[in-house]
Design brief:
It holds the Pfam family FlgD_ig. This protein is an alpha+beta fold and about 325 residues long. Helices cover about 20% and strands about 35% of the residues. It is built from five helices and 17 strands. The strands form four sheets. It has an eight-stranded mixed beta sheet, with helices on both faces. A four-stranded antiparallel beta sheet has the order 14-13-16-17, with no helix packed on it. α1 crosses α5 and α3 packs across α5.
Length: about 325
C-alpha cells in the first residue's frame, strides 16, 4: 500500500507580493522486513519563468522529473520490497532548495536511515542525437553512482550515463541531502553541445521534449529503486515465514603484518558494489580496488601503488565502503 502525505513540511512564502502556502508531497511504500532502510526517488514540482505567476509551463524543469516520480510510484506500488521506497516531490527548489532542505533536515534530526537518494531534475530535453545524462555525486555518494551506472547498462542500454564527481554542484535538491550526510545523486540531461534554450522560460513546453528519451530516464530511475530496495518474492509455502536478512559489510585481513602480499576478504550486500582504498598516514590515496562486484571476494595487495611504485615499510590505512557502510582497518608493511 502506498501511503501519501505532505511529509510534514509546509511553509508560507511570498513572491512579488503574493503569499503562498507551499508543500512537499511524499508517497511511502513500506519495506516488508527491512523497513528502516530507506531509498528515495525525488524531484521538485515547482517551476519558474519570466512570467512566473501566470505562465510557467516547466515541462522539462521540472515536470519531467515529477512525472518520473509519479510513474515510478504508480508501477512499484503494485509490488513489495525488502526496504522502504519513498517517492517525494519538493516545492521551493527554484527559490533555493527550500522544500528539500526542510525535508532532509527533518529526516536527519529524526534519525531516518536514508540509504540513498536519486533526484531527477530536467530529464527530457536532448541537445543532440545522444541519449545521455550526467549523474552528479559527491565523494560519499560515488558508490551509489557506480551502482546506478551498472543498472543503466543492464536495464536501459540505450542510455549513456556519465558519472560526475562534483561536491560543489549544489543547484538541485540532491545537495540538501549531501548537506545532511546522506548519499544522493542528481540525474540530469547532459548538455553536450547546448543547454536547453527554453530553460526558465514560457517556452519550456512538452513539445520541446524527446519523449522516448524521457521514457528511458524514467526506466533508469524506476529500475534503480527496485534493485536497491530489492523485490520481496516468496513462494506459496514460504509466505508468512520467510525473512531475508541483508548481508552486512565485513572485512577480514589475512597475513598482517606482511612483507609479500596481504589478503583482504570482503563480504558485502549482493545488490551493491564496494570499493577498497589504501591510504598512507598523510591521507594520500595509494591504491584502489574498485568496483568489487561479487558478494564475497578476496583481493590482494603487494605494496604497489596505482602509479607503479612500491611503498616503504610502515603503517597503512584501509577503507572498505559499500553503500553507506564503511569499515576502516590498518595494515603493516615490512620490507
Amino acid at each position: 500500500v502506498l501511503n501519501t502525505s505532505n511529509s510534514g513540511n509546509s511553509w508560507s512564502a511570498s513572491q512579488t507580493g503574493v503569499e503562498f502556502r507551499w508543500y512537499n508531497v511524499e508517497g511511502v511504500l513500506p519495506g516488508v522486513d527491512i523497513p528502516d532502510e530507506i531509498y528515495l526517488i525525488c524531484a521538485h514540482h515547482d517551476d519558474i519563468s519570466e512570467d512566473p505567476l501566470y505562465n510557467a509551463p516547466g515541462a522539462d524543469d521540472n515536470g519531467s522529473g515529477t512525472a518520473a516520480v509519479l510513474e515510478a510510484a504508480r508501477i512499484l506500488s503494485d509490488y513489495q520490497f525488502h526496504r522502504t521506497i519513498k517517492f517525494v516531490t519538493f516545492s521551493g527548489e527554484e527559490q533555493g532548495l527550500i522544500g528539500s532542505e526542510a525535508y532532509a533536515s527533518k529526516a536527519e534530526s529524526l534519525g531516518h536511515n536514508i540509504m540513498g537518494v536519486v533526484n531527477l531534475d530536467m530529464i527530457g530535453y536532448l541537445d543532440d542525437a545522444n541519449h545521455d545524462l550526467d549523474v552528479y555525486c559527491d565523494l560519499g555518494s560515488e558508490w551509489l553512482a557506480d551502482t546506478i551506472l551498472q543498472f543503466s547498462s543492464a536495464y536501459v542500454p540505450g542510455l549513456i550515463p556519465y558519472k560526475v564527481v562534483d561536491p560543489s554542484f549544489n543547484r538541485s535538491d540532491h545537495a540538501s541531502f549531501w548537506n545532511e550526510g546522506y548519499s544522493a545523486l542528481l540525474h540530469i540531461e547532459r548538455a553536450g553541445t547546448n543547454w536547453n534554450p527554453y530553460y526558465h522560460s514560457t517556452g519550456d513546453t512538452v513539445g520541446t521534449l524527446d519523449l522516448p528519451y524521457v521514457t528511458e530516464m524514467v526506466q533508469l530511475g524506476l529500475a534503480s529503486m527496485a534493485e536497491l530496495a530489492e523485490p520481496y518474492v516468496v513462494g506459496v509455502e514460504e509466505r508468512d515465514i520467510v525473512r531475508k536478512e541483508p548481508m552486512r559489510l565485513a572485512l577480514v585481513i589475512a597475513r598482517n603484518p606482511f612483507s609479500d602480499k596481504v589478503a583482504f576478504r570482503v563480504a558485502k550486500p549482493s545488490h551493491l558494489s564496494a570499493s577498497l582504498k589504501i591510504y598512507d598516514s598523510a591521507g594520500r590515496l595509494l591504491k584502489e580496488f574498485n568496483p568489487i562486484q561479487s558478494e564475497k571476494e578476496t583481493v590482494t595487495w603487494d605494496g604497489s601503488t596505482d602509479k607503479g611504485s612500491v611503498v616503504s615499510s610502515g603503517v597503512y590505512f584501509v577503507k572498505l565502503q559499500s553503500g553507506p557502510q564503511t569499515i576502516s582497518e590498518k595494515v603493516v608493511f615490512v620490507k
